[in-house]
């Protein structure tokens, strides 16, 4: 299967979406959306959901930002930076919604900059160090496939704000998944060295798949996408043996705290600073 065929197949249902990450639209996705929490929706549960999804996005965006000046090519540096900006935008909207409904009135900055690592609820896959480019490709493929499947379901959420955020995110995540899929095929079906590195990356990511599949009921859908891409790339499907613990309950790797220290350093050093 050629990577063009993979693109066309994965793009089904997203035919109107641009393939450029940050160019999926600049209109306010919440314009005109009623921000009142609907009857029957638990505000606490809604806030918790928004925070976990925002934490996933923020931590992933920070890791992608680390590729700036380090990517294999300038074009890939720009693409990865833009994917990170997409995720950062999702995090801002989700944190803002959480602050609206949890009764605290916290801002997006309060969530992002003034919580410790143990308070974050992101999946652990997002916080792992980048490693080489192959690892980042495999991680992005898994993460974007999983997040896209979940956001597609959230477009029907009873909270209209979360549904609107998800609808915008679907367009972005479809590109993220496709970008990663094309690189997975290119590297997996490339040189002996690129194939070896992709196999190693799969082995490194595999233990963290179980945490994703227990979070939301999207396992079959995500596995189908991963199988399609790995077959096209001449790679095996990874066998995952879930690690104990979960980032959703605040159990993180040793890598999250230093990542957050870098992210939060300026804000904590100058908490009252303004533009």
From TrEMBL:
Q: Which domain of life is it from?
A: Bacteria
The cross-references to InterPro entries, in alphabetical order and at most eight, read: Aromatic_CoA_ox/epox (IPR052703), Ferritin-like (IPR012347), Ferritin-like_SF (IPR009078), PaaA_PaaC (IPR007814), PaaC (IPR011882)
Mind telling me what this protein is named? Phenylacetate-CoA oxygenase subunit PaaC
Pfam families assigned = PaaA_PaaC (PF05138)
């Amino acid at each position: 299967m050629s990577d063009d065929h993979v693109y066309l197949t994965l793009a089904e249902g997203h035919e109107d979406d641009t393939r450029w990450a940050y160019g999926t639209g600049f209109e306010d996705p919440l314009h005109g959306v009623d921000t009142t929490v609907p009857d029957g929706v638990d505000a606490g549960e809604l806030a918790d959901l928004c925070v976990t999804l925002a934490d996933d996005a923020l931590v992933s965006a920070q890791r992608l930002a680390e590729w700036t000046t380090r990517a294999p090519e300038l074009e890939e540096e720009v693409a990865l930076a833009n994917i990170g900006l997409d995720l950062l935008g999702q995090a801002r909207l989700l944190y803002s919604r959480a602050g609206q409904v949890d009764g605290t009135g916290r801002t997006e900055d309060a969530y992002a900059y003034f919580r410790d690592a143990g308070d974050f609820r992101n999946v652990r896959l997002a916080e792992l160090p980048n490693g080489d480019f192959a690892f980042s490709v495999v991680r992005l493929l898994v993460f974007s496939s999983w997040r896209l499947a979940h956001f597609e379901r959230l477009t029907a959420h009873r909270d209209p704000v979360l549904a609107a955020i998800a609808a915008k995110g679907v367009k972005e995540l479809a590109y993220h998944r496709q970008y990663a899929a094309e690189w997975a095929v290119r590297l997996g079906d490339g040189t002996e060295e690129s194939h070896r590195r992709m196999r190693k990356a799969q082995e490194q990511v595999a233990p963290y798949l179980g945490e994703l599949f227990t979070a939301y009921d999207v396992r079959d859908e995500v596995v189908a996408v991963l199988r399609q891409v790995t077959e096209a790339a001449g790679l095996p499907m990874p066998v995952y043996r879930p690690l104990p613990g979960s980032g959703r309950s605040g159990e993180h790797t040793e890598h999250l705290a230093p990542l957050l220290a870098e992210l939060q350093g300026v804000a904590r050093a100058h908490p009252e600073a303004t533009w």
